[in-house]
């Protein structure tokens, strides 16, 4: 097993079947219980019950659809490295993080170690949209010491999946 089991909200541990199901639905949550039963050695009814339980216990936060690059390849995307002010007020930092969380252009935001404090992925319609977003979120905030933008030329891989078991998932 590649992932140590954890306890659920009711004290139940995740077993190998749970981990295999979670791994499978990360890649395609649109498959039926019958289709999943071809990859996980459980009956379709057992799979349906387990998936209901896993969702009910919060192991699946939400289900999303990944759009085709045909819809997204012309958009401007940028990785933005952010340095916060040395003595950033915690309340103002929290307000910045809430604004980032609420901005639809921010696809991900991570607090990181090193010479920068945050890394963001911004998805914008074009350069004008990017400038307005960066200025509205970052440039006007005194908590932000500086930021630098790295523009994405081409997406080579996007795979936001977590490998939970030793099995190879179906792609």
Rg value = 20 Å
Low confidence ranges: 1-5
Give the N-to-C terminal Cα separation.
Answer: 20 Å
Major pleated sheet? 4 strands, antiparallel
Indicate the overall shape.
elongated
Strand content: 15-25%
Spatial strand sequence of the major β-sheet: 2-3-1-4
**What structural class do the secondary elements suggest?**
alpha+beta
Helix content: 25-40%
Describe this structure in words.
35% of the residues lie in helices and 18% in strands. By secondary structure, the chain is α+β, with helices and mostly antiparallel strands. The chain has a four-stranded antiparallel β-sheet, covered by helices on one side. Strand 2 (106-111) and strand 3 (118-124) form a beta hairpin. The longest helix has 13 residues, at 44-56. Residues 1-5 have low confidence and may be disordered.
Short description:
This protein is an alpha+beta fold and 171 residues long. It has 6 helices and 4 strands; from the N terminus they run H-H-H-H-E-H-E-E-H-E. It has a 4-stranded antiparallel beta sheet with strand order 2-3-1-4, with helices on one face.
């Amino acid at each position: 097993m590649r992932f140590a089991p954890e306890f659920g909200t009711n004290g139940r541990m995740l077993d190998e079947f749970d981990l295999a199901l979670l791994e499978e639905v990360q890649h395609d949550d649109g498959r039926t219980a019958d289709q999943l039963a071809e990859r996980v050695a459980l009956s379709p009814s057992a799979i349906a019950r387990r998936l209901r339980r896993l969702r009910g216990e919060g192991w699946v936060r939400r289900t999303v659809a990944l759009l085709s690059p045909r819809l997204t390849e012309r958009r401007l995307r940028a990785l933005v490295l952010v340095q916060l002010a040395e003595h950033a007020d915690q309340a103002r930092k929290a307000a910045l993080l809430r604004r980032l969380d609420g901005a639809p252009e921010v696809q991900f935001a991570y607090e990181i170690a090193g010479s920068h404090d945050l890394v963001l992925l911004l998805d914008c319609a074009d350069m004008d949209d990017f400038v307005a977003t960066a200025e509205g979120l970052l440039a006007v905030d005194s908590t932000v010491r500086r930021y630098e933008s790295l523009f994405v030329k081409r997406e080579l891989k996007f795979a936001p999946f977590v490998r939970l078991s030793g099995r190879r998932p179906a792609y």
